[in-house]
Design goal:
heterodimer; A: mainly alpha; MetI-like fold; 14 helices; B: eight-stranded mixed β-sheet; 12 helices; 34% helix
Chain lengths: 305, 331
């Protein structure tokens, strides 16, 4: 287990380094940061001065290592637009995004895992059909439309929930439902497929032949094995929620990190975009790392060779 | 307590399929006594595994079981609810499966899986259950039992896993064990060890044993009585001596010709084989099910269903209309 953890950790670090290099390079290729900083009305001399001042005239590798070194110390540079530290800017926005992400993934798992299990126990039953219907809906409905419908019914008509902002937990109810419902179908389908497959294995027959209670067979022997791929999927979904909840954050005016990313891209705010990409990638990498550890804990065949 | 561990009357298993009902097991009658080994022999798809699953009430959901009588230790368990049956399974009736590689849950230790079986049926502490599990592992010839308890199935070889399965099945000291091809997936040397072990343990615990196999070598080695199945029916049954020395049904005779006999079968001489294929069991079927492959077939064979008939003065019975005199001449 220790060897496995170290191996995964090493891989995670390598991925993090690669991602940082690629994101750094891509953004430098896509636009000239000096022009972006100087603004549209600046003269060539101004642009040249800025280029010198910020060191954009140095070789790209030098610039990369310089940036990486500072980034490791928590200094992600200054935002071109806000003129403040990128790290504190991101730090301000992250709690909102994190709250939303945690709520949404919890909602998605709580909704879809039991539904997937129930559907697998009785394939083609009413429960299975309802689960299928819900998951097709979840996959097909665009989240902006679903969000607007919720606002129309719950906020405008029934006046139950606030439409925008992030002041109380009530503000998070609709965003959680929209974002979670978007992630739920995949988790549900994978749980269902996994359970169906596991329920037909020899060891489940053995468990029943031992006279074990049905719920022990189902939740101890079957779910434990069926849940392994679901863990990996949920980790990816969670990472996606942290980085990609732009639509939901915009509609409900939750000014989180996703919204900041979108704003910064449209403003050509290079340091902020870079910082966000780095933070989002690190989230993904950390999540994948923990998902791998969780899987190793669940499946001894991964843990012990 | 009586001597008869299990008695089954009129067991049938039907499986509804898209193109008709598959009559997989047809009117099977069986019994097993204490200390006795009944071997059910037959080729793949003859219904022997379904018969064993039907006895445990573990058939797949879509299979329909009809059964006239099912007695365990001379008391009917036919009307038992699923809850009552689960008290019987693993406790009074145990089952060992064909695939030791996949029959243990990969996510839990051997100890965990053994302790949970004991604690399901006995009111004992975890540590007592663990001690019993360890003793049982030693009994089935597993060394370093303490360490094995902490290991996962994938860390053990196939032979070891099958020993674990046997130990797990024996934990609650069942009156009857059903072993469905327990040695088929194992190396030949391991096969012999496992069979020997089963036989020893059976004597020690004075259990009834139903052993399902397609291997006549296994039958000769371990059986007290034999039931030969063909296309869902028992076509012949009797003691192991009767079946091997005086097989009556043409199918059983055909099977016997497939085994080489030391001293009798000359090198290079082809072994017997039974031409043809098992008939489809979907829909209704009249007459002898072996008729198409039988070289003694007569018109009467196809006219009506054939009942089991007793061999005069013996415990042997077979399902054939042909005059035994005529049969011996040909065979």
């Amino acid at each position: 287990m220790i060897y496995y953890t170290i191996k995964r950790l090493g891989l995670a670090l390598l991925v993090a380094l690669t991602v940082s290099f690629i994101s750094f390079g891509l953004l430098y290729l896509s636009s000239d940061p000096a022009i972006a900083m100087a603004g549209e009305t600046a003269s060539d001399a101004d642009i040249e001065a800025i280029r010198k001042l910020y060191g954009f005239d140095r070789p790209i590798l030098v610039q990369y290592f310089d940036w990486l070194q500072r980034a490791m110390g928590g200094d992600l540079g200054k935002s071109y637009y806000f003129r403040t530290d990128v790290s504190s800017l991101i730090g301000e926005r992250l709690p909102t995004t994190m709250t939303l992400g945690v709520c949404a993934i919890t909602f998605a798992i709580v909704l879809s895992v039991p539904l997937g299990v129930a559907a697998a126990i009785r394939p083609n039953s009413l429960v299975d059909r309802v689960a299928l219907f819900l998951s097709v809906m979840g996959q097909a409905l665009p989240s902006f439309w679903f969000a607007l419908m919720l606002i129309v019914f719950l906020s405008v008509n029934l006046r139950l929930l606030p439409t925008s902002g992030s002041d109380t937990w009530l503000h998070f109810v609709m965003p959680t439902v929209v974002l979670g419902y978007y992630a739920a179908p995949a988790i549900m389908r994978l749980t269902r497929t996994g359970m169906l497959e596991v329920l037909s294995t020899d060891y489940i027959r053995t468990a029943r032949a031992k006279g074990l209670r049905p719920w022990v067979v189902l939740f101890k022997h079957a779910l434990r094995n069926a849940i392994i791929p679901v863990v990996s999927l949920a980790a990816v979904q969670f990472g996606f929620m942290l980085g990609g909840s732009i639509v939901v954050e915009t509609i409900f005016a939750l000014h989180g990190a996703g919204f900041l990313a979108w704003e910064s891209i449209t403003r050509n705010d290079l340091p902020t975009v870079q910082g966000l990409i780095l933070v989002f990638s690190l989230f993904y990498i950390v999540l994948t790392f923990f998902a791998d550890l969780l899987n190793a804990w669940l499946d001894p065949r991964i843990r012990i060779n | 307590m009586g001597n008869r561990v299990l008695s089954v009357r009129n067991l049938s298993v039907d499986i509804p399929l898209a193109d008709g009902v598959l009559h997989a097991v047809d009117d099977v009658n069986l019994h097993v006594d204490r200390g006795e080994t009944l071997c059910i022999v037959g080729e793949s798809g003859c219904g022997k595994s379904l018969t064993s699953l039907a006895l445990m009430d573990l058939l797949p959901k879509k299979a329909i079981r009809t059964i006239g009588r099912l007695d365990l230790n001379e008391a009917s368990i036919l009307d038992y609810s699923e809850r009552q049956m689960s008290d019987v399974r693993g406790n009074r009736m145990g089952m060992i499966f064909q695939e030791p590689m996949t029959s243990l849950n990969p996510a839990f230790t051997i100890g965990n899986q053994m302790v949970e079986t004991l604690r399901r049926h006995r009111d004992i502490s975890k540590s007592d259950a663990r001690d019993l599990a360890k003793q049982m592992l030693e009994k089935v010839g597993i060394t370093a039992a303490e360490q094995r308890l902490t290991q996962y199935p994938h860390q053990l070889s196939g032979g070891l896993r099958q020993r674990v399965m046997i130990a797990m099945t024996l934990l609650c000291e069942p009156e009857l064990i059903i072993a469905d091809e327990p040695t088929t997936a194992l190396d030949v040397t391991i096969q012999a060890q496992i069979l020997l072990l089963l036989r020893e343990l059976q004597h020690e615990y004075d259990m009834g044993l139903i052993l399902i196999t397609h291997d006549l070598g296994v039958v000769a080695r371990i059986a007290t009585r034999v039931a030969v199945m063909y296309a869902g029916q028992i076509v012949e049954q009797g003691t192991v001596e009767q079946i091997f020395e005086n097989p009556m049904h043409p199918y059983t005779r055909g099977l016997m010709r497939c085994i080489p006999v030391p001293g009798k079968t000359r090198p290079g001489e082809p072994l017997g084989s039974i031409p043809g294929m098992v008939p489809s069991l979907i829909g209704s079927f009249t007459g002898c099910r072996f008729a198409d492959r039988c070289d003694l077939v007569k018109e009467a064979c196809r006219k009506s269903d054939v009942a089991l008939r007793d061999v005069a003065g013996k415990t042997q019975a077979y399902r054939c209309v042909i005059d035994p005199q005529a049969m011996t001449k040909v065979a």
